[in-house]
TrEMBL record:
Native species: Taxus chinensis (Chinese yew)
Stated name of the protein: Uncharacterized protein
Domain of life from the UniProt record: Eukaryota
Amino acid sequence: MAFSDLYDWISHLPHPSQWRRSVQSVRLFKMVELMAERRGGGKVCFSIDVTSWRTIPLGEFSCESMEVTTSCLFSFFIKSISYLLHNIKELGKSTELQLPSADPVPSNIDLSITQSPNYPLIFNSAFLCVCLLVMSPVTDRLYPQITQEFTQLTFPEFLSAIGTHLETPLMRFLGAYFSASFTSSLQEEPFHSSYARKISDLWKVGIYSPIVCMKTAKSHHKLCNLPQTTGKLGDALRYQQLESIIQLNHTIHLRHQEPYIKIEVGIDNLRCDVYPFDILQASSCSDVIATERYFPSRISLSVTPQHQPGDDLAISVGESSPNPTVHNANRSGLELSFQSPKQVGVKALFETETSFDMKYWKYGQSAQGVSGIFTWVLYDPVNKTEVTSSKPPKFSFMDTNPWYRDRYRKPCSPFNNEGGVVFANDRYGKKFTWRLERKTEDKILKLKIEGTIWLTYWPNVYNTSFYETRSHEFCEQIEIPLVKSK
C-alpha cells in the first residue's frame, strides 16, 4: 500500500467485532508495518512493527466511530511528537520506548483541521514524523522512500497544525536526519520546506533547508561536494541548516474620491540564521571547528500581484540604501631642513588620502514588470565587491584582522552573535505601492512571494583555503482581500 493511502486504510476499518482476524496490518515501507489489534470493549491497539528491530505500541483507541478514532490518533501523534522531541537524546539508548497515553477524545488540536480537504495528508505527515522519531536509529535505510513521501505530503499545512512551539525543533530534527542520510544516499529530491500563513495582521513566510540540500553556486574545487567531503571541517559544514523567517505587512487604502485602490506591502521583519545541529556537540569536533559555519551573503525577495488580464496595475518603488561615501583629503606644503649653516634642504610635499565609508549590507528596491524586488547584499569592504561573487584574498594571512575572521565576536560584525542577520522595518522599511482599478474592490488579490537566499562559507578561526556559496530558492502565495485596512 502506498503511504498516501494510510488515512483511508484507518478510516475505513470496520468495527472490531466484524474482523475475521484479531490483528489487521498494512505494510508502509519495506521494513515497517502498522498493526491494529482487537481488544475488549470495542477498542483497538495500534502499533508500529519494525522488522528485526522492535514493536512500538501507540496506545488503545475506541473504534465506535472511525472519524473520532482518526481525530484521537492525530491528537496522539501531536502529543507524541512533542514528547519525543523533548526526549530526542534518549531515543537510541533504550529498547523500551514509553509514549504518552492516548486520550479518549482529541484534546490538543484545533478540530477545524479535521475539516480541511487536505486533512488526510496532514494526518499522514503526523504519522510519518512519529515513525521517523521512534525509528531514528534505523531509518537511514529508508531515506529514499521517506524523502519521496515528504515531497508528496502537504507538509506546510502540517507545520501550521502543530504550532510554532514544535515547528523549529521538529524541522531541526528532520534537517539533521536528512543531512546524515543524504551523505550516504545522494537523492535527486533533497528535503527542504517553506510555507506562508497569516498570523494576526502579518504574513509569515518560513524557510528551512539543510546545507547539503542547497544548490552550489560557487565553490573551491577541492571540496565542492560536501556529501562526499571527509574530515572535521567537512563534518562541521555538512551538519548545518538554513532557517529564515520573513514577515510581511500590508495596508489597503480605499478613498471615495480616488478611482483606484492603493496597496502597500513592506518588510516588517526578516531573520536569516544558520543553525549547527547538535550532532556536532556529540562528535569529536574541536571548539575551533565548531565555530566554522556558513553566513547569509545575499537575500532576494520578489512580490508579484497575480492580477486578472485587463486590470490596469502600476507600481511605485522606494529608494535603496545610499552608495558608499568617498572622502578625499589633500595636504600640501614645503618641508625645510637645516643640517648645517651651509646646507639647507627644501622638499615639496603633496599627499592625497582617499577613504571609503562603506556599510557591510546594501539594501535595494527595484521593479521588474509589476513585481517589486527587495535585495540585501553583503559586500566585502576591502575589495568593494559582493561576497557571493568573490573569494577570500589569497594573502589574507598577512592581514592581522580581516573582517571575516573571528566574525561572530567583533563589535562591528555584519552578523549577530549567532551568525545570522536581522533586518527590521525601522531601518529597511521602504514599501512597494501598487495601484489597482477600483473595480477590483472586495475581491481577493493573490501575491506570489518568491526569492533566493545565498549562504557563503569563508574561514572564521580555522585555517583553510576552502570557500563556498550555496543558494536556496522558495516560492509561496498569499491572499489579500481588497477591503479597507482598519
